[in-house]
Design brief:
- With 362 residues, this protein is an alpha/beta fold.
- A 5-stranded parallel beta sheet has the order 2-3-6-1-7, covered by helices on one side. It has a two-stranded antiparallel ribbon with strand order 4-5. It has a two-stranded antiparallel ribbon with strand order 8-9.
- The chain folds into 3 domains: 23-153 and 160-195, P-loop containing nucleotide triphosphate hydrolases (Rossmann fold, 3-Layer(aba) Sandwich); 201-268, Helicase, Ruva Protein, domain 3, CATH 1.10.8.60; 278-348, Orthogonal Bundle (Arc Repressor Mutant, subunit A).
- It has 14 helices and 9 strands.
- The longest helix has 18 residues, at 235-252.
- Bound molecules: adenosine-5'-diphosphate.
- Adenosine-5'-diphosphate (ADP) binds at residues 35, 38-40, 46-49, 79-85, 175, 207, 235-236, 239.
């Protein structure tokens, strides 16, 4: 059957599309609640990331067999791929509790000491954005991770002395979008280091179907496939899209999320055929139109787009690179032939070696 389009809806413009809807972060309290409601709590419910999940399952089984605790775990990867989910899941599978904090939230040593002393044996302490810990806090984490003790200074001046207080054996689960920014003393204290990758469309389709059944959304196979295919490889985006598309399906149709309804909703949200959002397209367009296809330095691009450098580098670029639309070269970012074709922008005249030496990419 030929694919039917809802051409009655306007194509999303740069202003109309909501970058927030497809952002891989949980932005509002409502979105955070959605995250919690849809979070798998056991390995059997956790879809995809087979290698990571299988490894963790073995480590959990081994720790339980020894009646021991799980080694510290570092999870890296772009936002929305399941790092927080895995931290909770690990606690659940170990039969312990999870405490959640983040690098920027730990402002004083006392904050960390308070949390550490309240942990029970085997509990998981999840530290999101662990690369953003202040050095002084990070240093006080070392003895806690290694020897399960915290050092507290009592007294002042010449009479000051440090005493070590024992804490329960716990499992630190650190999450980061950028392993490269972790110091080596911190990195070396994690016994388990795993990297999460983007999910396949088939895995995201399974996730969307599971979410629809939890939320009571009527979703057919083709609707699920359409959302799975266009969710930027990211479960959080898939769930957000499902929830938004449901609104369009209820208001514009009979409430069933079919392929047509999904396509209509996704286009209204500014998500294109391949799942790129407006932020992704703005980045590609800037490289093509303002930098002749590149190479363009990340700072220059951030300035040209009035966008935060980190957002470009850690939110938009990983997916564009994985999809083959962008390459990072020592001299900067370059758009590929595939990107020009997708954006329907003519390739620059290449001359001898392309206007910016990019001929080799085409
Ligand atoms: P991160 O911490 O990496 O930003 P989260 O763990 O908060 O991402 O995941 C975002 C949401 O995506 C979760 O609440 C959950 O609903 C969903 N999710 C993530 N990973 C999976 C998975 N493997 N299977 C099913 N749902 C998942």
């Amino acid at each position: 059957m030929a694919r039917k389009r809802h051409d009655d809806g306007p194509a999303p413009s740069e202003h109309e599309s909501s970058a927030r809807v497809v952002s891989p972060e949980a932005d509002s309290p409502k979105e955070k609640a959605l995250d919690v409601a849809l979070r798998p709590t056991s390995f059997s419910e956790f879809v995809g990331q087979r290698k990571v999940a299988e490894n963790l399952e073995v480590y959990v089984a081994a720790a339980k067999k020894r009646s021991g605790t799980l080694d510290h775990v570092l999870l890296s990867g772009p936002p929305g791929l399941g790092k927080t989910t895995l931290a909770h899941l690990l606690a659940h599978e170990m039969g312990t509790q999870a405490r959640v904090t983040s690098g920027p939230a730990l402002e004083r040593k006392g904050d960390l000491a308070g949390i550490l002393t309240s942990l029970g044996r085997g509990d998981v302490l999840f530290v999101d954005e662990i690369h953003r810990l202040q050095p002084i806090i990070e240093e006080s984490l070392y003895p806690a991770m290694e020897d399960f003790k915290i050092e507290i200074v009592t007294g002042v001046g010449a009479g000051a002395s440090a005493i070590a207080i024992p804490i329960e054996r716990f499992t630190l689960v650190g999450a980061t979008t950028r392993t490269g920014q972790l110091t080596s003393p911190l990195l070396s204290r994690f016994g388990i280091v795993e990297r999460l990758d983007f999910y396949t469309p088939a895995e995201l389709t399974t996730i969307v179907k599971r979410s629809a059944s939890i939320l009571g959304i009527r979703l057919d196979e083709e609707g699920a496939l359409e959302i799975g295919r266009r969710a930027r490889g990211t479960p959080r985006i898939a769930n957000k899209l499902l929830n938004r598309v449901r609104d369009f399906a209820e208001v514009r149709g009979d409430g069933r999320v079919t392929r047509e309804a999904a396509d209509y909703g996704l286009r209204r949200l500014g998500v294109d055929e391949l799942g790129l959002d407006e932020g992704d397209r703005r980045l590609l367009r800037a490289i093509m139109e303002r930098f002749d296809g590149g190479p363009a330095g990340i700072e220059a691009l951030a300035a040209a787009l009035a966008e935060d450098r980190d957002t470009l580098e850690y939110v938009h670029e990983p997916y564009l690179i994985q999809q083959g639309f962008l390459v990072r070269t020592p001299r900067g970012r370059q758009a590929t032939r595939q990107a020009y074709e997708h954006m329907k922008i003519p390739l620059p005249s290449t001359g001898r070696n392309g206007p910016s030496g990019q001929g080799s990419l085409f």
